[in-house]
Amino acid sequence: MWTQTVEPKGFRAAALLLATALVTGCTGQTVSEAPGATDIQLAPETELIAGAIPLNTTLEMLFTAHGLTTEVARKAIAAVRGVFDPRRLRASQPFELERTPEGELDRFSYEIDADTYLHVTPEPSTGTLDATLRPIPKTREAASAVGRIGGATPSLYQAMEAAGERPELTIAMAEVFAGEVDFNTELQPGDSFGLVFEKFTRENRPASYGAIEAAELRNDGRVLRAIRFTPPGGKPGYYDEEGRSLRRFFLRSPLKFEPRITSGFSRNRFHPVLKTRRPHLGVDYGAPVGTPVIAVASGRVVSATSDNTNGRMVRLRHSGGYETYYLHLSRFGAGIRPGVAVTQGQVIGHVGATGLATGPHLDYRVRRSGTFVDPVREHRRMPPGEPVPAEAREAFEAVRARAIAALEEALQQQVSPAAPATAARADTDPDAPSRTDTRSGQL
Predict the structure, then answer these.
(1) May I ask the CATH architecture of the domain 139-248+385-426?
(2) DSSP per position, 90-123
(3) 238 vs 193: CA distance, rounded Å
(4) SS3 163
(5) Model pTM?
(6) What are the pLDDT digits (tens) for 51-100?
């Protein structure tokens, strides 16, 4: 369903001046002084329609449904194709369309994502339509949050919510420590966290998040810290205080977090369906149908099959003689087929209950050099990630000093009952925009 606001914009100045002159000339009075004078209703120059993209709508359907002529709609789509694929139009995203009564386009704005919007306007010199992609004005804040597991906040989601932040930040933090902690099973009451991150705010929209700059997780007696650093010529990554990469060869879990282990690795387990004892060469994670399943390491798809025992199953091959198996999926991830390369953390399927399964779960297995091994124990044997290169050590230490100082300042909130759970300060850049200008087409 469209939610629309139709707003008349401007009046025909010449008509208004003419009407005023006629009334004044005939009566010797201004319009407001004329006895029995009535307001003159003038047609608006343009109408502004604001709403959200409905389900199952194409850009042409959107344009014509709101009064653009077929010819204008097609010209607009042709202009859009130069900078944006119209097939990527997403339901529920905001848009504004301004048109004339004759069906000409005066302005169209569409929010592609949290950072960019599509802007279409006429080109006065040529009479054609011009489409551009523009950044969405936002205010950047250096923000922090702290939380604790236990009591009313038994999960990371709930603890982050209590700190005043959204689920997206929870997922981002879990990904930072994904090589060190299995958030499915290893969080304990009394665990705590603190993090420093970028936060972007804009008028009348929920906040969005940038990079986590530093994070600390106190988990079952151990203290884990992560510092974001970009080596010269490299990509951003997370390192501990000693400069060792937190990105392990394998992630701790093929599910991001919140599910639970329902059955561990065993050479002699009672099968709940077959009612016999047989080896269970993997780890079962109970999770709702549709939960995304991710590749624990980069590799290549060996097979994506379906049978009466394993259900839908994806098998991946990795370096070092490792293979991983993901069983009982409800469906495969997009583009998952034999021979395709996958990256660590990529969605390769979704939890289901296909094959011999009593309920929705993922059966996750690891094979090393042809032999199935316990995934939990195998991960513990894997060495830490690559360290910061020697030539970048000085730069890393400077980044570490700033990040740790900001992190420790945030963590002081945990010991101060009067302190708020979250804090943020606006970017001091005087040129940073803090408002959106809808009259100029910015959403």
Answers:
(1) Roll (3.10)
(2) -TT-EEEEEE-TTS-EEEEEEE-SSSEEEEEEE-
(3) 16
(4) coil
(5) 0.62
(6) 999 999 999 999 999 999 999 999 999 999 999 999 999 999 999 999 99
